[in-house]
Specification:
The chain has 194 residues and is mostly helical. The protein is built from 9 helices and no strands. The protein folds into 2 domains: 103 residues; 69 residues, Arc Repressor Mutant, subunit A (Orthogonal Bundle), CATH 1.10.10. 70% of the residues lie in helices and 0% in strands. The longest helix is centred in the middle third of the chain and has 29 residues.
């Protein structure tokens, strides 16, 4: 820790006083976060942050100091720093233990054998039939000049690409698709009213 940080630490190292504890926290937090970050692997960083560990230590330390369970009197900044590092490393170990089971179960997708993966869900025959009926209905309510536009959209082509291929403006493509959707909904409402 730099001399500048040590000069900011109060001369009386009584962590039991809230104001003093906050000053100590501000002075030591960057150093303590660095200590935690050096211990963390990339897999652990996905679970929690160095800030989480340091904040957890401070909140517990201040809480216990406020309710009078502990008074920490340390004679000089190096001993205070060693004490705080030990608290933070112990809390880091607690965080690691809390997440160890889930970390042990994680595996990289590149390490997974594809033959052991469950089969992808295929469409049921009823879904295929419904999709076919919907497609036929959309083609029947769509003017023949717009069939190619509808085919491109169902294949996932973006509006810009459809506009380029058809020679229409993007807003025209959007309007045609919007009108088609409106006709479909109106027909659906009429069928359900019967």
């Amino acid at each position: 820790m730099s001399d500048k940080c040590l000069s900011e630490v109060p001369k009386v190292m009584d962590v039991g006083e809230t104001a003093t504890a906050e000053e100590i926290f501000r002075a030591y937090e960057p150093y303590l976060r660095m200590v935690v970050r050096r211990q963390m692997t990339p897999r652990l960083r996905a679970r929690f942050d160095s800030h989480d560990v340091v904040q957890s230590v401070w909140s517990e330390t201040l809480l216990k100091a406020r309710i009078g369970q502990r008074q920490f009197r340390l004679p000089d900044p190096p001993r205070l720093r060693a004490f705080l590092v030990r608290l933070v490393l112990n809390r880091f170990i607690d965080f690691y233990r809390r997440h160890r089971t889930s970390l042990d179960r994680e595996r990289s997708l590149s390490a997974v054998d594809e033959r052991n993966l469950p089969a992808t869900r295929s469409d049921r025959p009823s879904e295929i039939l419904q999709a076919g009926e919907l497609w036929a209905h959309l083609l029947s309510i769509c003017p023949p000049a717009h069939h190619d536009l509808l085919r491109m959209k169902t294949l996932g082509a973006p509006l810009a690409e459809i506009a380029d291929r058809t020679g229409l403006h993007e807003s025209s493509v959007r309007r045609i698709l919007y009108d088609l959707a409106g006709r479909y909904e109106a027909g659906k409402a009429a069928r359900s009213a019967c």
